[in-house]
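Internal QA ticket QA-208
Title: Verify multi-chain structure generation after dependency bump
Assignee: T.L.

Test input:
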Amino acid sequence: MRTLAYYRGCLASLSAKELATSTEALAPQLGFDLIELESVTCCGAGDIHEAEPDYYLHLNARILAYAEATGSDTLMTICNVCTLNLRQANWELKNDEELLARVNTNLESVGVPSYSGGIDVKHLLWLIAEGDGYDRLKEVAHKGLKGLRVAPFYGCQILRPSKLLGFEDPDRPWTLEAIIEACGGEAVDYPAKIKCCGFPIIQAREEVALGELLQPIQQATEAGADAIVTPCPLCHLSLDAWQSKLEASTGRRFKMPILHLSQLIGVAAGLEESELNFKRHVVSVKPVVERLAV
Amino acid sequence: MTEAAVHTEYATMDVALKIWRYDSSTGERSLETYEVEAPEWVTLLDVLDIVKDRVDGTLAYRKSCRMMICGSCGMRMDGAAVLACRTRMAPLVERGHVPVISAMGNLPIIKDLVVDMGPFWGKIRAVTPWLDTGYAPLPDREHMVEQEDVTPIHKEALCIMCGCCVSECNSMEADPDFLGPAALAKGFRFVGDPRDHADVDRLNNLNDEHGIWDCTRCYFCNERCPKGVDPRDAIAKLGAESVKQGIDHDMGAKHAKWFVKSAETTGWLRETELVPKTQGIVASIKQMKFAMNLARHGKVPLPFPPHVADRVDESRALRKITQLQDRQGALGHVQGERALARIEHTDPGGARRDAPEVTLGETPPPAEG
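Actual output:
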């Protein structure tokens, strides 16, 4: 078992609890022993990063410091936005001694352990994709996906800016496709898989956001996908919860089921409904479940 | 020099590429394949020159300096905006890849690879791209500025206005009136200039409907910019300056401020209150039907009891400290640039494999931009 510090983030504790339950049920099968960080806060998303960047840096330094205190050298994330936020803060702190010293002084002054730079931040997707992950995945996904046609949707902040993320080619990513295939599904290709779901502005600029959301859902539908899978709970919320608004604004019916990465693998690995929690989806996943049950 | 002499001087290679041809006067479009012999050091721009010179003189594209200064030769290769003069062809030839070349996105196509930059320049003009010294008397001689005072706008000043960032902007695809990454980066270049004294007016203008809070943070602009301007980071600087100066009437600013409030009160996002805090009570009531549907699926977590982070007093205290340490506004972003400038490419040590050959760009680009 590989011991990993684990940052759940806001949404997996709130509106996307199904992401937490499926991830935490799946982790032991993937060989991950998760130590969930308890004394941490929101990473600030793009919002605190934008509005109060110094506060953003300190919140993320605090998360990194508590991750380091677990003794693990890796912090696992399950959200694209958390991943970019933590990796950017981590890079800045590791590569600027003066900045690290100032932040550490502030952390210590409020009782937070100082951070020495010993953490690498990795998304669940990358932890599965690296090393012998696929071989292990094929064993875990013993129930398979019976040729289910799955459209990968990466979301932005696991690909760009690639200088901070850099795990794979941001224009030609392949990890989700490889996971879909390792689980026994068929990956559906479409250009918008690397584009934005619109979520960051879905409350302040709903019309613009829906214009962005249309591309992946329409293209995946036209490519014949049975479902879309995403590694980001914010993309999931946009694709799943706002799909009804997209249907209302376009006059089209999509009814496209949206799966979290951990649910896609989880269903192939035979997790229970109490762990997958499909009932928490707004767009029904029933067609997928029924197809896999045959 | 004769052509034969060129061939003896340089090793050559056979270069193939596909180009989306388009004529706006007839609406005709076609994907044409070209194969030419070229020196192994050629760029995409060199290959286009060879095609135009030896194969088809009607091919239209823009060029001027050939050295990444003029910003004329922005176009798409396999669906991604590049400067043709910066893009070496040898690596593609070596792996047998035949790239698809097309005009930039988000701008109307005039002919082949030439787009109408009119909308682009209109947005640049809209941010008043010149110094406004306000009521300050003009100095008798040149206005001397210390290096440290212009460091905050160093990256934004590198822009060559090629349009590669605009080409890929996801928000602009959905809202063509969005000012977009190039104009907003130019906007910060003046907001952050110590000689300019119109920053409040500028920020108010940039907080309009199609301004900074239209940005969806897709980071395509940072990814595509050939000069390291990182327009998304410039937009974040504008957001931070707006909040610092109390220019927070836009829903985007209110949304961001609620995250700050959440972090310092409960530590975690107070998700359910985010809608009324962003949109106001009246607009939120109109969302009730939608919210009820989400609530049926557990997507509207109850605000009570609040989900409070353990040791949240620490994050509360850190906010107070950061407010006293003079890194508010754009300076909070600038402080990270020293470290970020050292990145070539981080590698989380993970797996990489050759990207599959894909057909990005095979779909014809929309002629209307």
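Spot checks passed. The first helix of chain A runs from residue 17 to 30.
Status: verified.
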